[in-house]
Design goal:
By secondary structure, the chain is α+β, with helices and mostly antiparallel strands. The longest helix is centred in the last third of the chain and has 13 residues.
Length: 111
Amino acid sequence: MTDPFFELLVLLFQAKLSGSSEFLPFKQTMCMLRKGQRIQIERSSPGAPHAIGWTIFRRTPRKYVYDKEPLFRFERGARRSLRVRKAYAIHYASFGSEPSWQAPVQNRLVQ
């Protein structure tokens, strides 16, 4: 991604059924997602009455986009998920189409 505005952020979210104006609580949102129902996840602001949890949004030049990231009740879990995601990056070779994953190298003394 070479887009200068591409950035992942941990933000509050609110959820509602697609096509409805009724907001859902966290537990009901998770149950409905597990059943495969369409839920609309939107960015919320701190102190908003419908803010129910935290997730990762992608910042674009005009808005914040939710890309089916995991949902968390608390900010700590969402931040941990973002850290893990950045720690284990997938690097693509310039001459091939297969991704290559590189584990951290540990220095060992050879005897």
